[in-house]
Design brief:
Layout: H1 3-32, H2 34-57, E1 64-71, H3 73-77, E2 82-88, E3 100-104, H4 106-123, H5 132-161, H6 165-169, E4 172-182, E5 187-194, H7 196-202
Parallel strand pairs: 1-4
Antiparallel strand pairs: 1-2, 2-3, 4-5
Helix pairs in contact: 1-4, 1-5, 2-5, 4-5
């Protein structure tokens, strides 16, 4: 069996099956532990708000226009299972005053690590025709599926997170958005609020 044939056989017989199994396990885990996972997200949001307020009180940070939760694929590939949380003013990524925290997403990506470990084991009978670069490429593609699950959880959790006192206490731009997605790439708005002045001007 040539390498191309081996890889095609491997994907058809193992990758697709294991991917479905792990995603199902993740969805069951997420549903069964939803309250805890929402609390953990809210706590991560609380931490970034506390940091923002501290920096604002010291005159190091101005009004906030964006809070982003970002997937860094390199982190996930290297086993650092966290999303980067950042706070910016209205010019977003051009705001150079760093304000960061982390959100632990091990609850989701632990199943991706299991997926990788099982593929490594199942690749052994292919007598070196399936190597780590092949498995890493498969893993890299799978990340998007896990990110989608994290986003769905964040959409629910932000309903609670946006009500905490620490968020109310920070100084905000006329429009503030909370987003989640790829680092400096596509992201989804999970919360948006306009000031009363902006809202009134539209009427």
């Amino acid at each position: 069996m040539e390498k191309g044939e081996a890889l095609e056989h491997f994907i058809k017989n193992y990758v697709k099956t294991e991917s479905s199994v792990k995603m199902q396990k993740l969805k069951v885990y997420s549903e069964n532990n939803k309250d805890i996972l929402i609390d953990d997200f809210v706590e991560s949001f609380r931490r970034i708000c506390v940091k923002i307020k501290d920096m604002q009180d010291k005159g190091e940070k101005g009004e906030i226009g964006y809070i982003t939760y970002s997937l860094l694929r390199t982190n996930i590939m290297e086993g650092k299972l966290v999303y980067l949380i950042e706070a910016f003013n209205r010019i977003w990524f051009f705001d150079r005053i760093e304000c960061q925290e982390e959100y632990d997403v091990r609850w989701a990506y632990q199943f991706l690590d299991e997926f990788e470990a099982e593929l490594i084991e199942k690749s052994k009978p292919y007598l070196n025709k399936i190597g780590m670069p092949d498995i890493e490429r498969v893993k890299l593609k799978e990340i998007a599926l896990y990110n989608n699950v994290v986003i769905e959880l964040a959409k629910e959790a932000i309903l609670n997170a946006s009500e905490i006192k620490e968020f109310s206490d920070i100084l905000k731009e006329d429009v503030i958005e909370i987003r989640i997605g790829e680092y400096k790439g596509p992201s989804e708005v999970i919360y948006r609020k306009e000031s009363n002045a902006i809202s009134g001007a539209k009427l």
